[in-house]
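Reading is simple: each integer encodes one residue's backbone shape. The lines below illustrate:
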Amino acid sequence: MEISREEKNGAVIFHLNGNLALTGVKVAKTDIKPAVEDVAITKIIIDMKNVNLMDSSGIGFLVASAKTILKRGGKFALCDCQRIVAEIITSTHLDDFLQIFPSMDDAVSQI
């Protein structure tokens, strides 16, 4: 898992490249969790365009991250999910809890 970070329109965007599974989640925790816990950051977007696999640990990481930032009134969103990842999200009903946008531009403009 490789993760890059950028800021756009007041949102911190993390671009993920790899699998959001066991070892990928460890990298995500190292790179993304500090931003999630930073009270100065109120908007986080996770770009899922290059994530082809996500397991239960990935789901758990996304849910925990979203809960942390939403609890303090912030916003958390996913964008550009691959079909297989989108199916996992909908089958687990995470789409009822997480904001999911079809593109980065949509996420940036609406979050």
About this structure: Residues 38 and 69 are 9 Å apart (CA to CA).
